[in-house]
Amino acid sequence: AAQAAAMLHSLGVHTLQLLTQAAACILLFPRFLLTAVMLWLLDFLCIRKKMLTMPTAEEAASASEGPPPDDPPVCVSDSNRMFTLESLKAVWHGQKLDFFKSAHVGSLAPNPEVIQLDGQKRLRILDFARGKRPLILNFGSCT
């Protein structure tokens, strides 16, 4: 009987997770489509602008200086990156991360658990706040 109850509980948890994921997909799909189309249009316009403003062979021969370093030449691969499966996966992942984030503008700050350097004591970030003094978190740099 206990094993059957555990199986039912496990099935209920998995069903709830599946329903949550399905609801998230339904909510995220319009945002995903809008973002994907906007990025595609931006890519298309940037590549079109570069193609239309490319100098002719005569102009290129007469120009002694090359393009500015921040404006690389158009490559064949530039036109192949529009609406690739990899770019759509990245857009979907970004929308999903944004949707499920715990910090939102105007909401209370998240208060996750942290472990002190000695590894023994667990606290919450806001436990370090003192009075009206602002709490500053510095995560440093990994570069």
Short description:
With 143 residues, the chain is mainly α.
Describe it for me?
- The protein is mainly α and 143 residues long.
- It has a domain at 1-54.
- The protein has 4 helices and 2 strands, in the order ααααββ.
- The chain has a two-stranded antiparallel ribbon.
- A hairpin with a 6-residue loop joins strand 1 and strand 2.
- Helix 1 packs across helix 4 (85-100).
- The chain is flat, with a radius of gyration of 26 Å.
- The model has no long low-confidence stretch (mean pLDDT 77).
- Keywords: Membrane, Oxidoreductase, Selenocysteine, Thyroid hormones biosynthesis, Transmembrane, Transmembrane helix.
Main traits of this protein?
transmembrane helix; membrane; 143 residues; thyroxine 5'-deiodinase activity; oxidoreductase; 4% strand
Helix content class: 40-55%
Sum up the overall morphology in one term: flat
CA-CA gap between termini? 56 Å
| Helix run count | 4
Structural class call reads: mainly alpha
Q: Tell me the major beta sheet.
A: 2 strands, antiparallel
Pfam family, one: T4_deiodinase
Keywords: Membrane, Oxidoreductase, Selenocysteine, Thyroid hormones biosynthesis, Transmembrane, Transmembrane helix
GO molecular function: thyroxine 5'-deiodinase activity
Function: Responsible for the deiodination of T4 (3,5,3',5'-tetraiodothyronine).
